[in-house]
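Sequence in, structure out.
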Amino acid sequence: MLLLLVASSVLIGAAVAQDNEYDDDLEKALEDAEEEAFWGSMALGGMCCMIMLIPIIIAVIIAVWVYKDAEKRGMSGILWLLIVIFVPYFIGLIIYLIVRRSHPIQQGPPPGAYPPPGQGPPPAGYPQQPPGQYPPQQPPR
């Protein structure tokens, strides 16, 4: 009887030990799955963020190009920038590309810029002088 009792306690102990190993393996597998899920969700979130940022970056690049091109052609850059930004689905860009054909690029300095020294007309009241003449003549009184 004692032998039966000892044998049964050994078998029960072995079963409990084996059950603990199974629980440890299951717990480790669950922890690994949680960690993989965390990093997977982080990667998915990063991809979603990039997918959302790419169209915004493209829109900003197009808007800056339209502004600069419109200013070169003597059109209102701010107006075209706002049209391109606020008219959806690139319709504003298409309208700009159609309208810009009738406005050639202006040569020379942009409107409102001072000409280089010796290249522009003298201010009112100053006589015209040949280039390289120094000292400049005084205005008439």
